[in-house]
Amino acid sequence: MRVATFTIGDERRVGLVDADAGSVAPFDLSADAARAGVVALIGRAVPATLSPLPLDRVRLDAPVPRPARNIFCVGKNYHDHAHEFSRSGFDSSAAAGAVPKHPIIFSKVPETVIAHGEPIRIDPSVSAAVDYEAELAVIIGRGGRGIRAADALDHVWGYTIVNDVTARDLQGRYSQWLIGKSQDTFCPMGPFAVTRDALDLGDTVIRCLVNGELRQESNTRHLIFDVPTIIATLSAGITLQPGDVIATGTPAGVGIGFDPPRYLRAGDVVRIEIGPIGVLENRVEEIAR
After folding, report:
1. In the CATH scheme, what is the code of domain 71-286?
2. 8 A C-beta contact, residue 63 and residue 5
3. From CA 178, how far away is CA 83, in angstroms rounded?
4. pTM of the full structure
5. Which of 1, 81, 207, 212 is deepest in the core (most CB within 10 A)?
6. Per-residue DSSP letters for 66-102?
7. Which parts of the chain are coiled coil (predicted)?
């Protein structure tokens, strides 16, 4: 099932997407419930749908428009990216080795989230090294603490796409990555979410293009730490909540991996493709001073 969070008029709705028909059928949810986006579907039977609307008549919102708490993220979780990042000089964890022995966990604040089509806003007075990172994100459906890896996928509601936009100079300046990862607009999310059954974690392609040029192309089967391992690691002492979002890491091909680095500039368009979910595309804008 492919689901959209969207706004029509002044009202947010959640609906079932029919990609072939180019339409979205709103679920029969209250306005209060729909404000949470796809989280409104967690822990309940799938509601009935109302008359479909053309997708080009609605404004897509992020599937989880405002996460209830920080987005959990995993760093250096593809072998090729782990090596390119360690070579970059911006990796504060490089002393422990290029490939981590345990998942590297950091977070992004909820205010970073923007929707497909909204601008990534860069501030040259704050950072001169803004990068892109295409990632598959997990949406938790059933919370829990001490979740075993063998049971972890039972706690997943579904998946979406995120762009873990990063200020590399800030990431290198501070031992913790929060500031470099949490600038306003630095987490484009969407365009849709899919339920757990709609995506094969063992064989899903992730691609990222900047201005039409292919920069990243990999497959979820190349994750160093798979989704069950990530969930087991996070929930060992932290109670996961329904609606939590976990970004699983990015493959090689980010801007920092080029010589010289190829950072984002005003006017660039970043396009991330994960087949079952769709295409997340955002243009870069510079904040006027």
Report:
1. 3.90.850.10
2. yes
3. 21
4. 0.95
5. 81
6. S-SSPEEEEES-BHHHHHHHHHTT--TTGGG-SS-SS
7. none
